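Before relying on records like the one below, remember that each one covers exactly one chain. Contacts with other chains, cofactors or solvent are not represented anywhere in the record.
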Amino acid sequence: MNYTTRTNCVFCGSKLSDHLFENDYTNYVAHYAVDNHVDSDTYHSIPYNVLKCGECGTSQIKYLGDIEEVYRVNHADGTGSTMHNMHQSKLDLILKYKDEIKGILEIGSSKGILSDLIIDNLKTDYCIIEPSYFGNYENKIVINDFYENVDDTIIDSNTLIMSHVFEHFYNPLEIIEKIEKNKNIENVFLTFPNLEKYIEENIFHVLNTEHTFYVDNNIIEQLFLKYGFKLKEKKLFGVHSVHFYFKRTAANKEIELYNKKHEVKNYYDGVFDVVTRYNNIIDTNPDKDIYLFPASCHSIFLTIFGLKYKKLKGMIDNSPNKIGKKIYGVDLPMKNKNAIFLMNGGMFNNEVEKKLIDNSIEYYI
């Protein structure tokens, strides 16, 4: 499998040499659902290690998978109450500043859930740039391509929206430089995963093949200010996400970025603790069917560090788009049945935990 190796920090450009792990691990390059008939020989794996920048404190994965393979299948289907509530929370923030908006450009819309909500509540032109869009096309212009490949200056919109997208870019500085150069853009509504909380609370969706760098919320604010967008409002959506509203201002390239909450060692200690605990449950219950929730990167991340996933009966998920399939790299069927459930979804556990309790199903978090 082709992959590239990071040598310089994504935010300050400093040379990277400080490895978190003495030896590389192995990681499947993607996390999306595939049909059960897909041959496991077609799966691609790449090395895994983490580099920490000695200048700005940003941790970032060393090896980057082929972006076409990582995102071959759009798997951000927005299923579940958490994602629905997150979009509603962002809509409320956008409507608070609706008089500032004259056309919207959304980068990375997947299923188009947020765009549908906005269009239902705000009369404005709407353009989406998304390489794998599979939502509603009504009252929208959809450009099926990566943002990096599109001349966004020809799009007459003064407001840019990103929701859980910025953290996916391999070269985020190139993206914010592009946004800065587009003088049409006056407003940026950014929703970013609350990575500093993920690190604190062992939510395993940090530093994988999709979220390839870890920064705290402060660095996001400073980064946008450096490139000419000043924070006007910040709104937390629990531990899941942070909504930022930035307004164009004068750039200040003298700002030096620094990741204040930069320590990730405890996060990985937590990963190894969970793997050890889950493996013990698996080994001491050989006569029981054991399933892992969710069927996503949150759980697949554990397989890098020794989870005995081949002893599991399958995976469970509350997305109807995944049932009857399997996750890329892991030949385990996705079902929903009574058994022992290992719950590794962080805040997403809440979406199914009540059902487990109501049905007296044995589970571990």
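The CA atoms of residues 203 and 346 lie 5 Å apart.
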